[in-house]
Amino acid sequence: PRLTKNKIQTCIKIIIIDKYIIDDKEFDIPQVDTPPTLESILNEPEDEDEPFILEDTCILNTENIDAHSCETSSLASSDSGDPVETNATVHGSVLRRNVLKGISAQMVSAADKVDAGLPTAITVSNVIAVGTSHGLALVFDQNQALRLCLGTTATGAEYGAVSALSINHDCTRLLCGFAKGQITMWDLANGKLLRTITDAHPPGTAILHVKFTDHPALAVCNDSGGSVFELSFRRVMGMRTCESRCLFSGSKGEVCCVEPLHAGPELKDHPITHYSLLAMASLTKILLIGLKPSLKVWMTFPYGKTDPASVPLLAWQFVAAQKTINPVLAFCRGNTIHFLLVKKDESGTIHVIKQRQLQLNCDFISLSWINPRTLVLMDSTEKLRVVDRPSQEELETVDMAELQLVYNSSHFKLLALVGEKTCYQSVCSYAGQIMYLGTKSVHIMTLRNWHERVDHLLKQEKFMEALSLAWSFHEGTAKAVLGLFAEPAKRKGVVAEKMVEILLQYVDRSLKKCPEQGKIQDMVPIMVDYCLLLQRKDLLFNQIYPRLVENSVARGVFLESLEPYILSERIGCLTAPVMRDLLSYFQENGMMDSVEGCLVHMDITNLDIQQVVQMCWDNQLYDAMIYVFNSGMNDYISPMEKLFQAIGPPLREGKPLTDEHVVMGNKLLVYISCCLAGRAYPLGDIPEDLVPQVKNQVFEFLIRLHSVEAAQEEEVYPYIRTLLHFDTREFLNVLALTFEDFKNDKQALEYQQRIVDILLKVMVDNSDFTPSQVGCLFTFLARQLAKPDNTLFVNRKLFDQVLEFLCSPDDDSRHTERQQVLLELLQVGGVVQFDEGHLLDLAEKAEFYQICEFMYDRKHLYDKIVDCYLKDPLRKEELFNYIHNILSMPGYSSEEKQLVWVKALQHIKVSQKRLHMLCPLEHTPGREKITEKHKLHEATAYLLEKKGDVQGAFEVLLQETGDEVPSLLQRVEEALHDIIALCQRSSHGLNQQQREVCVCVCVCVCVCVRDPVYGKGKLAEIQGLILGMLETFNYEQTLLETTTNLLNSDLHWSLSHLRKAVSRGLHPRQDHCNICLQQYKRRQESEEEIIIFSCGHLYHCQCLQRKEVGVLSERQYSWSCYKCTSNQGSRPADRPSTESSRSHSASLAQVSQAVTIHNQCAQPNMKILAYFIHLNMLQKNPYDRLVCVRDHNVLKCYRTSSTKSISHFDYFLFLAAFDPF
Q1: Is 90 exceeded by the pLDDT of residue 24?
Q2: Contact 594, 563 (CB under 8 A)
């Protein structure tokens, strides 16, 4: 098939079919003149505007992956590429680091004794091969014994250093690449040289990589010129030959890393292995090709923007995804690691899928898989970073600086920039082990198994971390796990045993080495937590608690720590000794609330019930007492008996209840409600088989004729009477809720009727109950009777009897209460129980006007409701709102509105508000004539005011006050209030003269009314005095406003100049002290302060102190410029009088204030800016004198007092800012 650039740079779906050719039209592949080569693909310029897009990663679904079998070193480990949520935050030491001392010692010995040279390369299989700088290859077995020394120093002088090594898959052949370009093949069984290859690539270029593929006769090599060659080994007629084919030429681009895909013996039949995949990394992109059955480019992937000095890295690993195992290529350059999954589906289509990338904050020089989920990376600072790929979490960091890693920089002649950090041949991995080659040693890194990781923390006495790590193993959330069973049950069993061991060690160590309270308080909750997580309460109470009892502090901490677990119901049952100790400890320490909270959440069958009940009663733990009776003995009646015995006597005797009695009564009501509803008190539910029995017992108890220990004078039904007297409404609400559940239960319905009969018998015609209580009863009954499925029977005469009782006209007490009770009764449906005519008559006689309104509203007689409002003194003022609503709101017929309007006109008494609401101005012209005719002065004035004739309204109201008849004095005062209100409303519409006349008249009238001396006086006699007062007021008001404006203008001018001064910066003329002539920037080692003046001179503080140019006043130094004052012939210390006599016109250069800053803040490329601000006396209040000190780049401001006694103050503000020149 023909390939194009676009097809290669996007997600490629390659169909490998040998028997026919792909149809270009079918797959919409455009025609090209010349198919691209590998060289052209690698050297294509990167198009940053069109990023490479791979197939969607949603193909990998983590839901079907067994997460418990993925943390082993097996190749069947699953990997989805997606993050896995985990609560584990402690990973411990993941890597075990060992030094291969035998190999290290023999490398050093070979360098000294046989001049083998320094190590340059390493590879590992069943044996370990180390190449040297003098051309030798040292082969060691698994016991670190030297098996072979391949090559000679003479060969090394000819070929150069060993630059690359590779062992084939069956560990029978070793390929050695040299710095001068030669390649040799050795037989590892006998150390025989099999081939020397000198013409496989251009001469003079070093071999950077030589790699066997899984095909036994195929290898690849990469030279320092950036070219890649395929090496095919053949044996023809006894002659060993090697054919070389150039896969990529470095003339137009440089490949600096190659990595063939290797599959273990268990994956030799994997469908992907048949293609001999080869990944190549150039300086710009990754190229994935297949060598078999024919050379084919599968995909390219550009890096994007990276550091040119970053090293390209490649690493293959088989991982399990969606229960199938496929290879994943990890590659990176810089700090971003990309992953490509290669898979072949059932149809034979090969997919290359880009997975989630991993980005860290460092530049990598080595990349290795240590298992299918874990990567080990080395950054440019030679630190190993262990990263969990699915979660992208960094598990551990190991410093490898002491290794003195071998770098292959000398071989990268044409790739010098990248070669500075290359260590391709110094790192190799095999079977879950990674080896690192140092100049004098070989280090091997392996994963610790789970047990070893826990023990490593225990050796450091990090028990909490060890427990946390072990729990993550237990739950399957740990990372890089090795050595655990894949089956969850077996895994949890093994880890649980280890955690028990850790817990016991932790307890012993804490009690022995850290007996102080703080350590124990940290330890005990951890013990409890993990014992509960492991479901090992036996361990907690039978092994750990006996050890803690020996320490009194530990015992108390343990018992207190149990409370939150009991309240959260994580602990529901305690052993008898622990339970006894818990109750006694709480009781001894006055923690009775905790006792109650714990008791109601626990199984108390193993306690002494009578003792616990008595303790609860004595300490007023009523919830706990009820719970103990219910749960311990299935007794639901005894708690009620005890509570009734407590609250009954004071209620019967009419005594006020104490707070304790109120609490008991409320709990009793709630308890009864819970029992009748089938719920346990204070929480939970009653067992289903006991619910009917409990309900019957409670009903039978409530309707008892007498109590158990009844006195002769006890009235019948004492329990119901007690509840009614305690809280009638709430008790009836409890019954109402209970009656809601009575459906198709014949016995329950009988109890319902029985209780209603008792309530009527107890409350009706009983003076012990108020009308409100009786009303509550009949309201309750009305609600029950109004239900569609009602089965209650109540004699209607009782409702008439209650009506007569509530509407008794001879009883004026509780009038509002009785009316409200009757209204509530009618609103819930009780109206059907009465004769409506008789009800209206009684309501009118009792002056229950709200009842009348309710009845008239039902009949739509809205006009009669007007009479109800007029007769009701409490709601008379609401009449016009009601009329307005009727007339303006929809829902009423025109006839009903007309009747209301006529009724309103019959009873109307005109006032300002009423006239405004009933007679809109635009609908009733000439209304003021009607009001004048009937001498309604208030209405006339109101109408004139609405017309805009304020003067006329004022005269009308003034006319009303002119009557001098003493009997009308009160009316005059009312009219005067109306006049004042009119003036207040309309003063804005009058001119100055009119306002003066109105005010004058009002004052005169007030004086005449209040003081009989002026009763016969004339207005003109005091008019002059009043007008004079008004004139004085106007003058003073104008003066105040003018003065305020002047002050505001002056302040604005001052602040604007202040802002201009702040925006100007000053810096010193020189960068050295004008006294000692030393540059202040170079004295950063000291804490010396510097002082800069407005004149631009700069000094060290100590220099000024030695010259005595500072004046100490009120604990603050007042500095002056030494150079300026020396030129004037004197110093400020010698002229205190002159300083104090300075006038307010002093210039900025004369201000003797300075600014100090710490010298260590100054830097060679910085300058100092100083801002000077002057404030006069008018600005003294809003601004204090400020001196700002810049210390360690922090601006500190503090207040200093003024040293001047003149009328103006000079304020100096230094805003220290260091800006680059």
Answers
A1: no
A2: yes
